[in-house]
User: What shape does this take?
Amino acid sequence: MSTNRSRGTGFLARLGVRLPDRWTPLLWRLGVTALTLGLLFWWIPIADVGDAITRIGLGRWMGVVALFGLVHGIAAVKWAVLVRASGTPLPISVAIRAHAAGLFANIWLPSIVGGDLVRAGIAARSSGQLAGPTAAGIADRVLDLLALVSIAALGLALAPAARDDTALIVLEVSVLAVLGGLLSGLAILRYLDPARLPTRAARIIGRLREVTLSLASNGRATALAMAIALAVQGSLACINDLLGAPIGIDCGLAVWAVAWPLAKIAAFAPISLGGIGVREAALVALLTTFGVDPALAIAQGLLWRSGLMALGLLGGVVAMFVPKPDAPGGSEGTTESGRPLPGRTAR
Assistant: This one.
């Protein structure tokens, strides 16, 4: 059995996941995660954090996990809307399975493989088209970031005065980063000459450009996806409030609308394992400017993380047992150009 095939067998292969060839970046991120969490617990008494965590009952925690699942189900619909707007057919069962597998990969395999890649690969094995799900995944991320920035800006306008300008500075940097990344990506697709690239890269850029134009021209689908993104991210801010109240955080929904989206944006920085440590540190820094006890802030962050991990495991179960449709035309495992799909090895 070849090395490539052995790396793609078992449970992970059934989810479309293959392990990396090099582990150095993963080890670096593991080190950053451990260092960040270590500094947080050195600064904040662990006993105070543990006492806060024990205040939440199992029933409320399980209710939060159920709400997580509902919100992520709606998020799967958003992604399916974008995939279909790109011109790629996507049955709802495939959308659910793909999103669940991507959720599992994002939470339990951080920095090993992106959940967006897993999600796109499963959709591609169903449709035989990889460019559409890939472009839809990028658009999905962009809309989520725009929704997060919008909610944070609204929350900052409604929240009580903070002790310093930390939240405003983070918001301004986030806006510039999101807009800069969006404009850079559009410029690359618009002005990059595929003729200067190798044949395979030129084909990929050409297909991405084609489906991006299809998405951009479908204003109704984009507007619907943006509305869903606002609803999803707003709902998650409300869930933060529900999770924080029992442990003693009484800062108000407007403050959560500021702190949670900005902490989530900070966690997108590719320096730790799935944003672990970075999100918690950002959340503590932001909440404390509104008078929240740092121990309560880190306790809430850990409770949130535990809920996500539980949901990620459920996502892996769903991805394993939702029926897999046959690939179109009996060509399972290849794209429309005949190349192997992500998570597959050529036979």
